[in-house]
Design brief:
The complex is a heterodimer of chains A (115) and B (115).
Chain A: E1 4-7, E2 10-14, E3 19-25, E4 32-38, E5 45-51, E6 56-59, E7 62-67, E8 72-77, E9 86-92, E10 104-105, E11 109-114
Chain B: E1 4-7, E2 10-13, E3 19-25, E4 31-37, E5 43-50, E6 53-57, E7 64-70, E8 73-78, E9 87-94, E10 104-106, E11 110-114
Parallel strand pairs in B: 2-11
Antiparallel strand pairs in B: 1-3, 3-8, 4-5, 4-9, 5-6, 7-8, 9-10, 9-11
Classes of the chains: A mainly beta (115), B mainly beta (115).
Chain lengths: 115, 115
């Protein structure tokens, strides 16, 4: 089955710096890659997602890149702010537009943005 | 106006007991999920229902039995609770909007502690 590895497990950056979190997936059939943010004691929330027919997607300070050949995808956060501090999860799935989407999550990255 | 709600928020119980967690979504979504998040924050899918029909059933002990009385509700009953069942259980729901959009909305979680 699908396996998703995520690195680093913890990341500390200074406010204003960039943060990069990397994930690797095992199943080459995977075609949907969302990123979820979970603040302490809260629920996971989708922040950005990408399908395999796209190499990069941006939304303000957040961007995701995908390398299908290497089976890598990454989350980039620019101009980090203290409110970006949270656990970030990558996920992968084989999704063909059906109602149910089985997400396999990475192990999470605890991002701490130091003011 | 909570989108996905769960009850109870906290559940403390003795080993061997039977307990239930309830989930309701008012988003009109067709698909609902149960996830387990362990003490290391690892997030793993357990079940998925689409229009009251079980679609995803991961390798979960049969002590766990989901039940969906209607598409807005997905409950989780756990028999003969064990220490290893201690975790945060998240309910989620989703609805396919486009071929590129399938956000899963998570509930606030239920922290289960088995003593």
């Amino acid at each position: 089955g699908e396996n998703v590895e995520q690195h680093p497990s913890t990341l500390s950056v200074q406010e204003g710096d960039s943060a990069v979190i990397k994930c690797t997936y095992s199943d080459s059939a995977s075609n949907y890659f969302p990123w979820y943010k979970q603040e302490l004691g809260k629920r996971p929330q989708l922040i950005i997602d990408i399908r395999s027919n796209v190499g990069e997607k941006k939304d303000q300070r957040i961007a995701v890149t995908l390398n299908k050949t290497a089976k890598h995808f990454s989350l980039h956060i620019t101009e980090t702010q203290p409110e970006d501090s949270a656990v970030y999860f990558c996920a992968a799935s084989i999704w063909n537009g059906g109602a149910t989407n089985k997400l396999i999550f990475g192990t999470g990255t605890l991002l701490a943005v130091q003011p | 106006d909570t989108a996905v709600s769960q009850t109870p928020k906290y559940l403390v119980t003795q080993m061997g007991n039977d307990k239930s967690i309830k989930c309701e979504q008012n988003l009109g979504h067709d698909t609902m999920y149960w996830y387990k998040q362990d003490s290391k924050k690892f997030l793993k899918i357990m079940f998925s229902y689409n229009n009251k029909e079980l679609i995803i059933n991961e390798t979960v002990p049969n002590r766990f039995s989901p039940k969906s009385p209607d598409k807005a509700h997905l409950n989780l009953h756990i028999n003969s609770l064990e220490l290893g069942d201690s975790a945060v259980y998240f309910c989620a729901s989703s609805q396919v909007r486009t071929f590129t959009y399938n956000e899963q909305f998570f509930g606030p979680g239920t922290r289960l502690t088995v003593l």
